Amino acid sequence: MQIGIIGLPNSGKTTVFNALTRGRVETEAFSSGKLEIHTAMVDVPDSRVDALSKMFKPRKTIHARVQYNDIAGLARGIGEKGGMDGNRSAALTTGLLNQIVQNDALLHVVRVFEDPTVPHIEETIDPARDLEILDTELILSDLAVVERRLNRLDAGLTKGGGTPVEREQLRSEQALLRRFKPQLEDAKPLRDLELNAEELRLMKNLALVTAKPQLVVFNTGERAVKNPREIVDYQHSKTVLAALQGKLEMELAQMSPEDAAEFLKEYGIEEPGLAKVIRLSYALLGLQSFFTVGEDEVRAWTVPVGANAVDAAGTIHTDFARGFIRAEVISYTDLIAAGDMVEARKRGLLRLEGKEYIVHDGDILNIRFNV
Ligand SMILES: Nc1nc2c(ncn2[C@@H]2O[C@H](COP(=O)(O)OP(=O)(O)OP(=O)(O)O)[C@@H](O)[C@H]2O)c(=O)[nH]1
Ligand SMILES: [Mg+2]
């Protein structure tokens, strides 16, 4: 899973990236303008993995992982009012768009903090306006993609050629894009549209960015804000809001665990931003974790909500899915209540499930397979 961090210049993208990844990338005013990507893999904090590791004392403990990409360079063209509004050339260069498109979700950092030493491209602090500026850029980029593709499809279908099945595919795509166009012209993101599996497949190869789930992170600086909707009541599908004290969280992430605990207490922060943001991104993407356990390894795996036992087996190894016989399943809470696997077995808490079994968050699976 990859999450791309976007936002206007100086909103605190790199600061948030450092907070999430315990990184030490230089943060500076107006580093944007050049396309530059910082990337880091992050362990998803999960106290259940820690508890299982204590129980099994394995040689290796592996958390689920997420990749964060700090995408700089969104400054170009944004805020430059060359000509009439809407007449502006697309601000997203091909290189930048390619970087954004690779992500499963976007984390949109919006500046709320006041600091006269940190310049703002629009000069004033206005989170609602800033959200709209970048959203508009993304919508314009999608509109350009949709129009270009529609022109191609129209030309291709007029010219003829291809098998009847191929032509049918092109017509379905054309119908879908004709639905997208008015949505974008209305300045609405594509993620607000309900799309079925077939439609998602048709649009998979198009570089559409407003379809991606978005986690909006308000960077509130010195001010702690509990309810992010107080800042902007931003309502869209596949969108969640969070408020984060960027600089503080970054400093926190760079401290030793002991110092960090002290610091959290002092500032009255209940949960560090990393844990909160990762939890939110997991939910946003419709993901959950199941575990495999043993003396060799305790490990968390990521599957979509609604995945079945074969899907889960396949994330471990394709052979596990191919030769799947049964899954031995126990929930995390049942195992913890029993104390260990031997006792859990004695109490009959382990179930044998077949291919169609829907995996739950926190399931511990042992896949039986034969290839
Ligand atoms: N006072 C204050 N300053 C902050 C906060 N977060 C970021 N900054 C400052 O804002 C400036 C820009 O922060 P960055 O994290 O580099 O912002 P960015 O969005 O990555 O900027 P570009 O990459 O240039 O687009 C730096 O001087 C940061 O120290 C905050 O919570 N409070
Ligand atoms: Mg930056």
What's this, in brief?
This protein has 13 helices and twelve strands. By secondary structure, the chain is an alpha/beta fold.
Question: How does this structure look, described?
Answer:
It is a single chain. The protein starts with a strand and ends with a strand. It has helices spanning 13-21, 47-56, 94-101, 127-159, 164-185, 197-202, 246-253, 257-267, 273-284, 309-316, 318-322, 332-338, 341-346; strands spanning 2-7, 36-43, 60-62, 65-72, 105-111, 214-219, 239-244, 287-292, 297-304, 324-331, 351-353, 363-369. The protein is an alpha/beta fold. Helix content is 39%, strand content 20%. Strands 2-4-1-5-6-7 form a six-stranded mixed β-sheet, sandwiched between helices. A three-stranded mixed β-sheet has the order 3-9-8, with helices on both faces. A three-stranded antiparallel β-sheet has the order 11-10-12. The protein has two domains: 2-249; 306-369, Roll (Ubiquitin-like (UB roll)), CATH 3.10.20. Helix 1 runs parallel beside helix 7 (246-253) and helix 4 (127-159) runs antiparallel to helix 5. It contains 13 helices and twelve strands. The structure holds guanosine-5'-triphosphate and magnesium ion. Guanosine-5'-triphosphate (GTP) binds at residues 7, 9-15, 27-32, 72, 113, 115, 118, 219, 221, 245-247.
